[in-house]
């Protein structure tokens, strides 16, 4: 496919994505709701402030131990571990979650420390939904922060906000 003058490959990718009825792999309605959530429920980037408060001994409200979901014990993390160990069963996708957990435990899987790249101040409601999907969250008397585990791209491209939404209704799941 040839590019027209003045258009980049990214422009072409966005055009194809928009015309396919989905945006970043999510239904247009879910993406639209996610845009609204980003605009209204994510207030500011507090990375420098929160990191300084966690690393300093200013207040017990910002102790490292207070970060919820700091370790990833998800089925995806187990699968990644078993692949790296060369122990992933061929029928992994057809196993129940209980069997997956038992297999991973037998091979000495332990939850992985999530690498938090950014801290975003978020509403209590969004923090609650982020916590439910296993994302690092810090909640204390001063507010709520999402520990974003990637950086360098628009929040909507992560898919994290979209994961908090029900794919059918576009509302918090």
Describe the protein.
The chain is an alpha+beta fold and 173 residues long. It folds into two domains: 23-70 and 114-163, no CATH class; 75-112, no CATH class. Helix content is 42%, strand content 17%. The protein is built from eight helices and nine strands. It has helices at 9-19, 28-41, 47-55, 75-85, 97-106, 124-132, 155-158, 160-163, and strands spanning 22-23, 26-27, 42-45, 67-68, 71-72, 112-113, 118-122, 137-140, 143-148. Strands 3-7-9-8-4 form a five-stranded antiparallel sheet. Strands 1-2 form a two-stranded antiparallel ribbon. Helix 4 (75-85) packs across helix 5. It starts with 8 loop residues before the first helix and ends in a 10-residue tail after the last helix. The relative contact order is 0.17. Residues 1-5 and 7-17 have low confidence and may be disordered.
Short description:
This protein is 42% helix and 17% strand.
Mean pLDDT: 86
Extended strand count: 9
State which percent range the strand residues make up.
15-25%
Total number of helices: 8
| Poorly predicted sequence stretches spanning 5 or more consecutive residues | 1-5, 7-17
- What's the overall geometry? globular
Please write the string of helix (H) and strand (E) elements: HEEHEHEEHHEEHEEHH
- First-to-last CA distance: 39 Å
Topology:
Elements: H1 9-19, E1 22-23, E2 26-27, H2 28-41, E3 42-45, H3 47-55, E4 67-68, E5 71-72, H4 75-85, H5 97-106, E6 112-113, E7 118-122, H6 124-132, E8 137-140, E9 143-148, H7 155-158, H8 160-163
Antiparallel strand pairs: 1-2, 3-7, 4-8, 5-6, 7-9, 8-9
Helix pairs in contact: 4-5
């Amino acid at each position: 496919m040839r590019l027209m003058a003045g258009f980049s490959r990214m422009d072409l990718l966005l055009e194809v994505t928009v015309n396919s009825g989905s945006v970043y792999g999510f239904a247009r309605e879910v993406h639209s709701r996610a845009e609204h959530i980003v605009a209204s429920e994510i207030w500011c980037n507090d990375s420098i402030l929160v990191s300084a408060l966690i690393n300093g001994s200013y207040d017990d409200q910002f102790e490292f131990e207070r970060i919820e979901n700091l370790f990833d014990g998800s089925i995806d993390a187990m699968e990644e571990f078993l692949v790296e160990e060369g122990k992933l069963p061929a029928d992994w996708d057809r196993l129940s979650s209980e069997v997956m957990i038992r297999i991973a435990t037998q091979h000495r899987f332990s939850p992985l420390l999530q690498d938090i790249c950014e801290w975003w101040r978020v509403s209590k409601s969004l923090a609650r939904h982020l916590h439910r999907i296993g994302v690092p969250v810090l909640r204390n008397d001063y507010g709520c922060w999402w520990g974003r585990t990637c950086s360098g791209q628009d929040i909507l491209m992560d898919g994290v906000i979209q994961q908090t939404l029900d794919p059918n209704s576009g509302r918090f799941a």
